[in-house]
Amino acid sequence: MLAIRFLRSVSPPLKCVRRSYKTNVSAQNTLEIRNNVYQTDEWTNITPKILSYIGLNKHLQKNHPLSIIRQRIVNYFYRSYTNSRGNPLFSVHDKICPVVTVQQNFDNLLVPADHPSRAKSDCYYINKHYLLRAHTTAHQIELIKSGLDNFLAVGDVYRRDEIDSTHYPVFHQLDAVRLISQDKLFGNNLDLHIFESSYKVNPSSFSPINSSSKCIDQSKQPCHTLEAVKLTEHELKTILLGLAKDLFGNNIEHRWIDTYFPFTQPSWELEIYYKGNWMEVLGCGIMRHEILESCGVTNSIGYAFGLGLERLAMVLFDIPDIRLFWSNDTGFLHQFNESNLYKLNKYKPVSVYPQCKNDLSFWLPENQDIDSFSANDFYDIVRNVGGDIVEQISLVDKFKHPKTGKSSLCFRIVYRHMERTLTQAEVNEIHSKIAQSCVEQLEVTIR
Description:
The chain is about 25% helix and about 25% strand. Helix 11 (about 375-385) crosses helix 12 (about 425-440). It folds into two domains: about 1-320, BirA Bifunctional Protein, domain 2 (2-Layer Sandwich); about 355-445, Ferrodoxin-fold anticodon-binding domain (Alpha-Beta Plaits). By secondary structure, it is α+β, with helices and mostly antiparallel strands.
């Protein structure tokens, strides 16, 4: 949910705009995903490369680092919350289809209509109504409506992003919700209540597009009493700090940072001081009550949190490159074993293969300038053609011709295979195919 970096802290090297580019997928008129057929339209920007990740479920692969971290977190919640019979209160949902509606991914979570996270440059759209989920929070309402009040949702999420050692178009999140009723929060104390006496239940007023999502008051939502918020905040922060200690050790230094998410108020990020730097572990907050009302929940207060599995696994296993999570190389996979979840073997490079660096320069179409160019369109072309042998892309030069007014960009593409040495000849062939695809899909002119 929240630790997905819904409001990005790192800006892409070029401005992201709502610009479509030509793809073979769009030209097919239909897409089949998980035995369902979808019509394509002007919003379609999903690529064959991205489609190939659906169903791989690395978070469920035995002995995989992502699966080990997932199990550690699930086991922590199983131990922390049990009923009177000693059974876990939290249910786990880790096989939910990643195709969601725009309403699930944005509207239900009070994301404003003009929020930049809705842009085609940020998400993989199947068509204007469907996309690959950008966060596991997209399933929050359907799970609550099914009658659940304590659950963990885990799965792959999809974001158009830059290319480097810490960014990948597919990654994995764990999202959690806990709803607490009056008697659970206050026991037999009849003098304390979850809601202010002036608050009136009105679920019919739920309007995600028009709802004001700006967190004006970090202390609480108008409907909640301060006592209810403080008790829920205490439970939330206690359980999440305990999770961080379970993962990183009891002696960690930590801090809570006030932040903003459209779907919680108040909201926080948990950071720990790790190896000389402050590192964000997760995001969390008190659930917006409008969301609960839309699910028919009118007598409870809820908290939610979310985190990225890759972020934690890269730190805990000393994995230097996010592409390694998708490797089928036995030299990588055989280093990890889930027989003992508390013995985390540090990654040891099997071999270090050399890089190959090629530059690609092109003129933009006459009617386009640098500010209107979407870098994520270019990154997706490179991913689709080059796959995981592309280690990093950086913008090394941009230029506007003083006479013609045409704009030029130069990107440096770093190629490196995770399992063998690449020859310059095969890199040149791939680089040439990328250039040709840019000509066809972005309508640029190679320099």
